[in-house]
Amino acid sequence: MGYDIERFVGYVNEGLLCSICRDVLEDPLQAPCEHAFCTACIHGWLVHHGNCPEDRQVIDVSLLRPLYRYMKNDLNRLQLHCRNREYGCEMVCSLESIDRHERECEYSQIPCSNAGCTVQIERRNLDGHLAVCEYRSRECPNGCGYTILSAEDTQHNCVAELRTELELLRSEMICRVEEAKHEMESRLDSQRRHMVQKESILQNEIEELKSQMSRMMSDVRSLMAAERQHRQELEQAELEKREL
């Protein structure tokens, strides 16, 4: 649906009206035959028809294109009243900026943000309503800390609420202790595995050193035996020399 033509100030060109709803174009599209429509209007029309509602030429959704730039500029320059005019807003602005204004308009009817409250109120009066809304949240005047959300909650049992709060805190504390315990056990297991792995590596290194030492001792013994053999040979040669 388009913008109600009654909201506009001054003359509106016929070419800027939707060929289906006859209101001023909203989010416009144009057919190859140059007739323009609101996007919602033409999509709804083409669900049941396959032609232009003006000249009956065959059209398809894929053939629809954005409005010509000059027509779009003319459309954006149109002046119209805010939709909250009936509530007291006197703003008149261009079609191009009307959405931005209406999103922030102080006369817009908006729902109360308190859960359970069905009141619709002007944005400018929202703060005043929230201060007295029977569904507003506030703390118990007796000091138990309970958040009152509705009129029925004002008769709550403070002792019961404190007991409930205490149980919740106790449960939360137990959960935190269990989490800390599991985390500590996990860290200890990880450290234990690391130490076992380190011990295994050190043990392997010790065994390797022992093996190397054993080979070195064997080599030393071989060298000492060779030295003794060499010494004996020298002594034997010396004796033979003396005999000669």
From TrEMBL:
Domain of life, per lineage: Eukaryota
Q: Which residues form the RING-type domain?
A: 18-56
**InterPro entries reported for this sequence:** Znf_RING, Znf_RING/FYVE/PHD, Znf_RING_CS, Znf_TRAF
Record flagged with keyword Transferase: no
**UniProt xrefs under Pfam families:** zf-C3HC4_2 (PF13923), zf-TRAF (PF02176)
Q: Which UniProt keywords apply?
A: Coiled coil, Ligase, Metal-binding, Zinc, Zinc-finger
Q: In residue numbers, where are the TRAF-type zinc fingers?
A: 101-144
The answer to keyword Coiled coil applying to this record is: yes
Coiled-coil annotation: which residues? 192-243
Query: Residue limits of the TRAF-type domain?
Result: 101-144
The GO terms this record gives for MF are: ligase activity; zinc ion binding
A biological process term (GO) from this entry: regulation of canonical NF-kappaB signal transduction
Protein's name according to its UniProt entry: RNF41 ligase
Q: Which organism is it from?
A: Rhabdornis inornatus
